[in-house]
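As a warm-up, study this chain.
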Amino acid sequence: MLKKLFSKSNTKLEKIYAPITGNIIPLSEVPDPVFSEKMIGDGIAIIPSSGSIVSPVEGEVIQLYPTKHAIGIKSVEGIEILIHIGLNTVGLNGEGFETCIEVGKHVKPGDNLIHVDLKLLKEKNLDTVTLLVITNISEKKVKINSYASGTVNCGDQLLECEIG
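Now compare it with the structure written out below.
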């Protein structure tokens, strides 16, 4: 009992900030089972009101899809985050997406990553929902302690995670 009380905890906390401005919805409401059933990880979804995607954490860009609709970032604490813009947007082959970053670059919260033309996505009848998913949740023993709700602006705290 006393050992537990005085021992140092190996858990770390990491805050993840909103990569886009919009209205938050739970992953379970996303009309794609890959995300709604958390097949690739847990996180949150945002229905965007702006097309600017920024970094939600300090870390390194580890993946940028050739179609520019998704980006992977590994935080300094080791959390791997996928930001996926829209549903079925891979078919646009990069049309409507402008990247501001490349793989291997160090980013801080708020750094510009991608700009998306939301008007174009809507004209093509594509769902604009943007997903932030922690893809290595089991490997890093990540527990999401709190989720934001309602409307969020770029840079607002979105999630708080306990690691380890």
